[in-house]
Amino acid sequence: MSKACPWCGESSQVLDLPAFWKSLAPGAELKVELAQPPSYAPAWLPVLGLVVAGVWLLAAGSLLGLVALAAGGAAGWVAWSRFQEAEAAREAWARSLYCRKCPGVFLPEQAKVA
Asked: What is the pLDDT of residues 73-99, one digit of tens each?
């Protein structure tokens, strides 16, 4: 069973996006348009610094330590969320299909069965 484009219904022009992208010439316009989403490398050093500062301030008896710990936890949560979103986008790209007729990018679960 081949997969057909959800927009034009064509199945002979549907290709695996990562394989199609690799086959493009280095200077091709589509090479930039269809590129894999960038990865996200969170900067954990500021988060760790806030947490350490919070613990140190709490040990010194300052309530500012709670603020620093909360800020460190929030910054860590935001960094982790952005990392997860970037990874999900990269995984979706790796599974995507490309229709050369439309041209359109779509996931396999969006494809029509031809």
From this structure: 999 999 999 999 999 999 999 999 999
Amino acid identity at 32: V
Contacts 24+ apart (CB under 8 A), 98-101: 98/14, 98/15, 98/16, 98/17, 98/20, 98/34, 99/5, 99/7, 99/8, 99/10, 99/13, 99/14, 99/15, 100/13, 100/14, 100/15, 100/20, 101/5, 101/8, 101/10, 101/13
Could you list the mean pLDDT of each consecutive 10-residue stretch along the chain, which spans 114 residues? 87 94 93 94 92 95 94 95 96 96 92 83
Entry field: residues in the chain? 114
